[in-house]
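Q: what sequence does this backbone want?
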């Protein structure tokens, strides 16, 4: 049920908004020409008239804002999303700061409040239990709905809207003075909603609930003969106590308003049995009444003075979806904790999400025992509660990280880039642009591909580096032809050929398949693939966060689940009889091919590929995986690979590696055919024409190079030519 909201309305940019360091930044606009014609953020804007739209670069300033069309001033993308300017405008426009400033204000009252008597609702709710009178019962139900479905969501939404606005202003401090008066109105309105909500709560109920939470299970002063039908009476009473204590201690209602634990215990123990049920029901209800009396006696005996606490009100994390963030503290706190904040807060700062509480002794003990509200005790204020809270915030809460400023991530020369510190990394990580890998450069480690979590952690330890590019920074002139090439590829000389499933082209086709032909998704995945391909170690892409910056389709394009055939590179006289005889070919460009596995040491168990079903759904390279190369694979003695997945995943071969791998397999195939004819020459006729064709293939193979080098002398090329000559010199055949 909506409350205190007229409808979804987005505010547009206005010419009085200060842009701070972004003032004068160049933005792209479209117009039909003329000095006074409207400017549009996109060529496809419905308000853009005329067939010939001219693209302009204009400065971001008041004069430009005045020329913007109304739709583009609300939703237009005036800065590229992955730049500091784009992130600033995104925080300002759409459902950003401008939207929040217009929400939950005195002028934003919903019609649901009309005709509601809050004072009458508070009077009805102050009585414990449901009224016996039917007419009063309907009023009581309406009062509960006013409290639970109107006042609570309104206060929560106003507070979370206020906090969201503060988040933007804290990142971009030059907006503070401009928004001050409107923020004061929002803060006053959120406080008024808190007082309205607190008026329909009963403070004594909160103390009773605190007393219940601090109690141990009381003994029974009643006869338990009526409970023998339940069997193990002690077990049933313990179950009832746990259920009732949990429900009563986490609610703001009176202790008499929790009959469900008795019903549920009887249902779980007796099921449909009726004999003795009524007697057991009365006995358990009487026992609960006894517990209520003990709790209220503890409340009445509490004569201690009030205590002062600072409570931190939790909120949904930065990376949760918008709906969860909007629920805010209502989804993080129990009803009792929400009631304590509403009733006992003397000052609240929603920018820092902290409140100064004045609470009775029992509530203070309950809060300090732990819970979702993180509380610390402070001395009784010597000044006003607001001044006391502000002084505590200055001492204990660090200044919020500033937003991304020009130079960290912008369309500027790399030479003008600023060092990315932990504050900038965290600010970028909190945006939609943060969920992607970045190409970074540092004097210590050179060019790397890292996630923002890793960048933030390194920066906090003194690492100095700059962001060179993100996936979204890659030019369309590079990406668009690549997409067209992959999508138009035929099914010809592909995975069926020797080594085909291991190549990068097969990985790209796999990416398109997993992207379901959606061009936008394909473009997004290919941009990420283009960046992460330059990572020297794929394990650096694991930042320990559940939110993976590399999609599954990109991992499939990076790693092949197929295994390598190492036979051509084994010596001819190797000792492993489980393997065929090799040719002793040099590894050359294949030596550095990466393989990712687990449990490389045999004493750890079988080695598994990241794609193995034993990975429990984690089909990506984690920091815990082992990295070996093709050269290491040849040196392994008796590796214990998994029989399902083959033990490892191969980083896909580039064009030169795949060509050499195919040539090696072709040479091995020719050698084995010639060896087979030599072994059977006494009783099987020799096909001279086929042998001649094999010899011509050998001549072609002899001209190939193991790597990308030009023809000439080097150890790899000489080793390759020597192996071809040895195959051509098979006795009595060639």
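A:
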């Amino acid at each position: 049920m909506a409350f205190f909201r007229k409808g979804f309305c987005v505010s547009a940019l206005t010419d009085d908004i200060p842009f701070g360091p972004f003032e004068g930044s160049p933005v792209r606009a479209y117009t039909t020409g003329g000095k006074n014609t409207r400017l549009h953020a996109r060529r496809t804007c419905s308000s853009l008239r005329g067939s010939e739209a001219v693209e302009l670069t204009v400065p971001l300033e008041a004069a430009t804002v005045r020329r913007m069309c109304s739709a583009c001033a609300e939703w237009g993308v005036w800065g590229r999303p992955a730049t500091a300017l784009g992130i600033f405008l995104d925080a300002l426009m759409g459902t950003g700061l401008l939207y929040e400033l217009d929400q939950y204000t005195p002028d934003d009252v919903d019609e649901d409040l009309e005709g509601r008597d809050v004072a009458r609702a508070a009077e009805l709710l102050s009585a414990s239990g449901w009224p016996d009178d039917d007419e009063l019962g309907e009023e009581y139900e309406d009062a509960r709905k006013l409290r639970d479905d109107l006042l609570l969501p309104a206060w929560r939404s106003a507070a979370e809207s206020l906090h969201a606005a503060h988040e933007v202003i804290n990142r971009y401090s030059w907006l503070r003075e401009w928004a001050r008066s409107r923020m004061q109105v929002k803060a006053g309105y959120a406080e008024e909603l808190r007082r309205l909500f607190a008026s329909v709560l009963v403070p004594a109920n909160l103390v009773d609930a605190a007393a219940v939470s601090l109690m141990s299970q009381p003994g029974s002063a009643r006869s338990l003969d009526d409970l023998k039908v339940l069997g193990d009476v002690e077990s049933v009473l313990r179950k009832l106590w746990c259920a009732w204590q949990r429900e009563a201690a986490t609610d703001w209602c009176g202790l008499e308003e929790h009959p469900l634990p008795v019903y549920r215990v009887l249902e779980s123990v007796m099921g449909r049995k009726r004999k003795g049920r009524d007697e057991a029901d009365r006995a358990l209800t009487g026992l609960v009444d006894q517990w209520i009396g003990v709790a209220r006696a503890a409340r009445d005996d509490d004569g201690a003075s009030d205590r002062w606490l600072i409570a931190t009100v939790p909120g949904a994390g930065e990376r949760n979806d918008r709906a969860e963030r909007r629920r805010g503290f209502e989804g993080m706190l129990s009803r009792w904790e929400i009631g304590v904040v509403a009733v006992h807060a003397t000052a609240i700062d929603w920018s820092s999400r902290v409140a100064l509480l004045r609470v009775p002794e029992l509530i203070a003990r309950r809060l300090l025992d732990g819970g979702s509200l993180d509380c610390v005790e402070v001395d009784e204020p010597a000044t006003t509660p607001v001044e006391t809270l502000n002084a505590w915030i200055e001492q204990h809460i660090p200044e919020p990280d500033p937003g991304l400023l020009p130079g960290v991530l912008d369309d500027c020369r790399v030479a003008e880039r600023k060092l990315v510190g932990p504050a900038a990394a965290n600010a970028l990580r909190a945006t939609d642009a943060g969920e992607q890998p970045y190409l970074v450069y540092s004097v210590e480690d050179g060019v790397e591909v890292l996630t923002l979590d890793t960048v933030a952690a390194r920066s906090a330890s003194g690492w100095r580096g700059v962001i060179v590019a993100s996936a979204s920074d890659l030019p369309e002139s590079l990406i668009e032809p690549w997409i067209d090439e992959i999508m138009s590829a035929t099914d010809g000389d592909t995975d069926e050929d020797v080594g085909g499933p291991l190549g990068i082209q097969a990985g790209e086709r796999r990416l398109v398949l997993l992207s379901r032909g959606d061009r936008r998704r394909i473009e997004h995945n290919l941009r990420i693939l283009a960046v992460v391909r330059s990572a020297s170690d794929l394990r650096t892409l694991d930042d320990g966060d559940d939110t993976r910056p590399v999609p599954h389709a990109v991992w499939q394009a990076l790693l092949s689940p197929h295994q390598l055939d190492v036979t051509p590179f084994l010596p001819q006289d190797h000792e492993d009889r489980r393997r065929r005889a090799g040719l002793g070919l040099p590894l050359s460009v294949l030596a550095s091919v990466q393989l990712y596995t687990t449990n490389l040491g045999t004493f750890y168990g079988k080695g598994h590929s990241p794609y193995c079903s034993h990975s429990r759904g984690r089909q990506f390279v984690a920091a815990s995986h082992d990295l070996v190369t093709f050269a290491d694979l040849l040196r392994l003695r008796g590796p214990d690979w998994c029989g399902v997945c083959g033990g490892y995943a191969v980083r896909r071969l580039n064009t030169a590696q795949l060509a050499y791998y195919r040539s090696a397999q072709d040479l091995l195939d020719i050698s084995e055919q010639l060896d087979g004819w030599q072994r059977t020459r006494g009783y099987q006729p020799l096909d001279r024409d086929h042998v001649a064709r094999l010899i011509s293939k050998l001549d072609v193979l002899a001209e190939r190079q193991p790597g990308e080098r030009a023809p000439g002398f080097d150890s790899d090329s000489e080793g390759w030519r020597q192996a071809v000559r040895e195959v051509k010199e098979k006795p009595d055949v060639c």
